[in-house]
Design goal:
The complex is a heterodimer of chains A (173) and B (326). Chain A has 173 residues and is mainly β. Chain A has strands at 3-5, 11-17, 30-35, 37-48, 61-62, 72-74, 85-86, 100-106, 113-117, 123-129, 143-144, 151-152, 154-160. Classes of the chains: A mainly beta (173), B mainly beta (326). Strand 13 (154-160) of chain A pairs antiparallel with strand 1 (107-112) of chain B, so a sheet runs across the interface.
Chain lengths: 173, 326
């Protein structure tokens, strides 16, 4: 990611990734998200975009951290580098064929510094004051910030493609 | 009241929603939605987003519909419609989902903001419709007058030894990760294994993340290169495409083990800027040391030959990625 910005404590962000920037579109057996910054994140959700509106999620699933914690602290190391924070694996096939929405709320008592990414094809972002992370509707009340940052805090979305029951891949080569 | 909206199934918007009560507005919206539901236009289910284009006879179970109504705080006997009540903005219909890459396993990046983190391999998407990917040389030994890469000598006695070739980024063009890689080898030998890895940007003696990717020959790990008995020229041995997107911006390590029972004769190039060759006795490719690294610094540097065995490395690209690359 190519920038950072502080002042996010007490705000909710939403990042949408369009299908053009997602591959594979199929969600496999589990999903996890990597975030970057220096903040206390109270909650993080991910879900597929609905067909109603690009900024309305069909559903939002709460991610956990460190084996079940609902909130997490992201921080910098001794050299001032942001340490990637990976969520726990959320065991669900989250379909990306209409896009994905990631939303989170930064605790007002935390640092509130996020890493940002400008001009990323297929990525867009918006924000709102207060805790609105769990709300699937991101189309109302939010301020669009895509021109400033295509991504807020979200660095990477990964999925797991080995069938944990059989130990073989989803597709036999 | 005259309707100003352009579609009969469009819900009331300004100025049509002026001077009407909320109840009248809702009635207009329901009437428009019913017209929409009976229209030939595309419909979107409010419950799960299904498009009528995707599923012409889509229907949700009664219980699901009733649960949805209750979530929307609609009394059981109140009129209600399950279709969108406005024309736009609506999402486009669902596009066909491309198949998963062959053999995809474990954790894979689906989307990344900014540069791909070091060591992360991104799955290779299929080409855009109408685009044909092309093979292009990203590194090769020095070319001759005809523009073809040519070795300038041979070395015998490699059977039972491991070779390693490092190609510096200065000798790689383009440095964009290709969709796939393949190698052309020359000599008369049998390789029981051939591996490739990006160099670690923090220490280019190491394979990045202690991971090397195996190259195959017709689906087999082992490959035999031969010499034409009449002309005495080597027949180039080309590997199968390795469909892993490798970042070569810190250089590439290629290593292989020559079968002790094979010929052990390789093509070589004395001076080849940006290339270095190394060797070790025994079978070492991909060996992970006690520090958890695949380290090439302990190999012996070949002071006579900059390049052995590897004639060229090719990458698979979209044509647009090669624009301006000379």
């Amino acid at each position: 990611m190519d920038g950072s910005q502080n002042g996010w404590a007490g705000w909710t962000f939403a990042v949408r990734v369009d299908p053009v920037a997602i591959y594979p579109l199929q969600g496999g057996f589990a999903t996890r998200v990597t975030i970057l910054g220096s903040f206390l994140l109270d909650s993080l959700y991910i879900g597929p975009v609905s067909a109603r509106n690009p900024w309305i999620a069909a559903a939002l699933y709460r991610m956990t951290f460190n084996g079940g914690d609902k909130s997490v602290i992201a921080y910098t190391d001794d050299f001032g580098r942001y340490v990637p924070v990976q969520s726990d694996a959320f065991v669900l096939d989250i379909d990306g064929s209409r896009g994905l929405i990631v939303s989170g709320y930064f605790d007002p008592g935390g640092n509130g510094t996020v890493m940002t990414q400008t001009q990323q094809l297929g990525w867009s972002s918006r924000y709102i004051l207060g805790d609105d992370a769990a709300n699937v509707v991101k189309s109302v009340g939010y301020t669009d910030s895509t021109l400033q940052y295509a991504s807020i805090a979200v660095q990477m979305i990964e999925s797991y493609y080995t069938d944990i029951r059989t130990g073989v891949s989803t597709v036999i080569p | 009241m005259a309707r100003h909206f352009y579609d009969p199934w469009q819900g009331p918007t300004y100025p049509d929603d002026q001077d009407v009560t909320e109840a009248e507005k809702e009635a207009l919206a329901r009437a428009a939605s019913m017209a929409r539901a009976q229209s030939p236009g595309p419909l979107v289910c409010q419950i799960d987003g299904t498009w009528s284009i995707d599923d012409q006879f889509h229907a949700d179970p009664f219980k699901v519909c009733m649960d949805f109504r209750r979530r929307m705080v609609v009394a059981d006997n109140d009129p209600w419609t399950y279709w969108q009540t406005i024309d736009g903005p609506l999402m486009p219909p669902k596009q066909p989902t491309p198949p998963l890459p062959d053999g995809i396993m474990d954790w894979q990046v689906r989307a990344v903001a900014g540069d791909v983190p070091s060591g992360v391999v991104v799955p290779i998407p299929p080409p855009q419709p109408g685009v044909t990917r092309v093979w292009a040389t990203i590194a090769q030994v020095v070319t001759d007058a005809t523009g073809m890469p040519q070795m300038d000598g041979t070395e015998a006695g490699w059977n039972g030894w491991t070779f390693a070739v490092y190609i510096d980024p200065s000798a790689i063009k383009p440095l964009t990760p290709a969709y796939a890689l393949r190698l052309t080898l020359v000599g008369s030998f049998t390789l029981t294994s051939l591996l490739i890895a990006p160099a670690d940007p923090g220490n280019t003696w190491l394979a990045l993340n202690a991971t090397m990717y195996p190259l195959a020959f017709g689906g087999e790990a082992s490959g035999t290169a031969t010499m034409d008995p009449i002309t005495g020229l080597f027949n180039p041995l080309v590997t199968d495409p390795l469909t892993v997107s490798i970042d070569p911006s810190s250089g590439l390590w290629i290593a292989g083990y020559f079968d002790a029972a094979g010929d052990g004769l390789v093509g070589s190039r004395t001076t080849n800027p940006g290339w270095g060759s190394y060797y070790a006795e025994g079978n070492w490719p991909g060996w992970v040391d006690d520090n958890g690294n695949i380290d090439f610094s302990w190999y012996t540097y070949d002071t006579f030959e900059n390049a052995i065995v590897v004639l060229m490395v090719e990458g698979l690209f979209d044509p647009v990625q090669l624009a301006g690359v000379t």
